[in-house]
Design a protein that fits this description.
The chain is 19% helix and 35% strand. The chain is built from 5 helices and 9 strands, in the order βαββββαββααββα. Strands 1, 2, 3, 4, 5, 6, 7, 8 and 9 form a 9-stranded antiparallel beta sheet that branches. Bound molecules: flavin-adenine dinucleotide.
Length: 220
């Protein structure tokens, strides 16, 4: 996979050694993150909205109610900025100043467009599969009325960057002799045992999509 073009918008200025413009790096983060935050400007005021996403090649898909302000804004072709973040650890330094977080994050810039027809159906499949792989083949598929009530939009990923912090705290040299605990508390997103719907008949077994539900995470 190739790297994204870099301009003033996606050039990482602060700690550029933690950055990457490689599609492979950016897309691994987008695909592992269950949801993203979409930022846009409306009437001169910035707004950031969290939402489920799915990616195919250089396209991000979002879906929701037709009345959604965010989806209408994206469908109108406006520029948007999307951020996805994975938290990997708490970084406890000897000094308060150097406390931090370990993370993998991606920031994407692009323009939106509406999605209809066969691409819309495929986007709905990708969004469903993003939540639990295999679910599209297990659940009842959308009726024409349900599909009509759902808006799907696409964002062309034109520019992007990834930033990754990993490893131990970085303290000032003079602080390493202090008797203060320092290190990393690893953080993982864990999926616990599924809880059946109270209205689920007892003889319906756990579906294949949930039998090994680790998505694309780095969990063992
Ligand atoms: C979970 C988390 C916690 C953080 N906590 C802090 C904190 O407490 N204090 C702090 O100063 N910084 C923190 N950061 C880093 C923060 O995201 C910014 O990178 C940093 O603040 C510099 O911002 P800037 O606008 O000056 O970056 P610039 O380098 O000027 O940004 C230029 C371009 O670089 C890219 N870029 C910048 N940051 C990121 C990113 N995180 N991921 C992907 N691309 C990026 C974007 O394309 C952006 O437009 C945190 C990051 C994460 C993911």
């Amino acid at each position: 996979m190739s790297a994204f073009p870099v301009d003033d918008r996606n050039r990482i200025r602060r700690k550029p050694q933690r950055g990457s413009y490689e599609r492979e790096v950016v897309y691994a983060i987008l695909d592992e993150a269950l949801y993203c935050h979409v930022g846009f400007v409306e009437d001169g005021w910035p707004i950031v909205i969290p939402i489920l996403h799915a990616r195919q090649d250089d396209t991000l898909y979002l879906h929701g109610a037709r009345a959604s302000r965010l989806l209408k804004h994206v469908a109108a072709g406006h520029p948007v900025c999307v951020a996805a973040t994975l938290l990997d650890g708490l970084v406890l330094a000897r000094s308060v100043f150097h406390h931090s977080l370990n993370y993998r994050s991606a920031v994407v810039f692009g323009h939106g467009r509406p999605v209809e027809g066969a691409e819309k159906r495929e986007a709905l499949r990708l969004l469903t599969e993003h939540v639990a792989r295999g679910r599209w083949d297990e659940a009842r598929l959308p009726t024409p009325q349900e599909e009509e009530a759902t808006a799907v939009v696409a964002i062309a990923i034109e520019r992007a960057s990834a930033k990754i912090r990993s490893g131990p705290p970085v303290d000032d040299e003079a602080d390493y002799d202090r008797p203060i605990w320092a290190g990393v508390v690893p953080v993982v997103q864990a999926f616990l045992d599924p809880i059946p719907d109270p209205r689920l008949p007892a003889d319906i077994p756990l579906p294949a999509s949930l039998r090994d539900h680790r998505r694309r995470s780095r969990l063992p």
